[in-house]
Structure formats: structure tokens, C-alpha cells
Amino acid sequence: MKIQIINGPNLNLLGVREKSIYGNTDFETYLQTLRQRFTDLTIDYYQSNVEGEIINKLHEIGFTYDGIVLNAGAYTHTSIAIADAIAAINTPVIEVHISNVYKREEFRHTSMLAASCKGVIAGFGMNSYQLGIESFLIEL
Hints:
Blueprint: E1 2-7, H1 19-22, H2 27-37, E2 42-47, H3 51-61, E3 67-71, H4 80-88, E4 93-97, E5 119-122, H5 127-135
Parallel strand pairs: 1-2, 1-3, 3-4, 4-5
Helix pairs in contact: 3-4
GO biological process, one term: aromatic amino acid family biosynthetic process
Keywords: Amino-acid biosynthesis, Aromatic amino acid biosynthesis, Lyase
EC number: 4.2.1.10
């Protein structure tokens, strides 16, 4: 099974930005933990701060991978274009968030992506990614 994790804007700064919200661990370190936990899966990782690059990545892998775990960051709340890209591909997408977006600013309470996704996971720290991956391993 092939899983693609895609992180959006500012998530390249995990471990150094707003530690009270996002924690102390950089994503590359956490990615190694995921790969060690799911040794029978291929887990690829991509991060971009650019909306169009995220869309291009969705198009590139959206017909060949078994699942996509997407943390689109602030684009979650603004990008109809990413929502359209998710709707256009065959690979199911799980929207994830490290923080509980519903305990934060009001504008974060709305996801432009959720309706095009298989599901949404928020508020479990970095483990939101693990839960996203596990969702592809269970029958729903």
C-alpha cells in the first residue's frame, strides 16, 4: 500500500514555530516514526508552501496511490482550487490537522476541503497523521 503525506504552508517549520500549538518535533523526525510503525506501507512525503504545487502533487499521485493524508494548513480554509483537485482524483484523501482547529480562531472552523475528503482528523497532535494512515487500513 502506498500512502502520500502532503503538508502545506508553514508546516516545514514544525518543531520551531508556535511550539505550544504544534509541538517540538520536526516533521522529518516524526515521519521516521511513522515509517517504523508501518513497515508494510510505502509512505512518501511532500511539503510545499505554494498552493499550485500542492495541486500539482495531488494530480501527479491522485490516480496511483492508495491514500493521501493532507494537512493543507491555512489553505484548508481558503482553497477552492485544492478542494477541486481532491474531487478530481481517484485516490481518497484524509484531511488532518495537528491542532484542534475548532478551539482556535473562528475562520479556522470552516474547511473548504472537507466535503471532498474521505474524512477529517483534527486535534491529536502529530498523531493525527498516524490516525489518518490507520483510516486507510480499516474497512469503513
